[in-house]
Write a structure and sequence with these properties.
The protein is an alpha/beta fold and 81 residues long. Helices cover 26% and strands 23% of the residues.
C-alpha cells in the first residue's frame, strides 16, 4: 500500500514509518522536518497552514497522488492558535 504519515519526525511517527517500511509499504511522510528513514519519500508542510494540509491530503500536487491510506500521528504541543 501507499501510505501517507503525518508527524513523521515525532516519536510515534518514526516508529510508524519504520514499521510500515518493514512490512513493505511505500511510505510518504509529511512534516516540517524530513524523517530520518531514507527509504521514506518526504514533503515539507506546515501543519498549521490549512492550504498546505489540504494540498497534501487531496493530491493537488502530483507528489501526493495515489495514497491508499493516511496515518495521522502529528501533534503540535503548545500550539497557541
Amino acid at each position: 500500500m501507499k501510505i501517507m504519515v503525518t508527524g513523521s519526525t515525532g516519536k510515534v511517527g518514526r516508529a510508524t514509518i519504520d514499521r510500515l517500511i518493514e512490512e513493505d509499504h511505500q511510505v510518504f511522510a509529511v512534516d516540517a522536518v524530513a524523517p530520518a528513514n531514507p527509504k521514506c519519500k518526504f514533503s515539507k508542510i506546515d501543519g498549521t497552514d490549512f492550504g498546505q494540509v489540504l494540498e497534501s491530503v487531496l493530491g493537488i500536487d502530483s507528489a501526493h497522488l495515489g495514497q491508499d491510506a493516511i496515518v495521522h500521528v502529528s501533534a503540535i504541543p503548545g500550539a497557541t492558535k
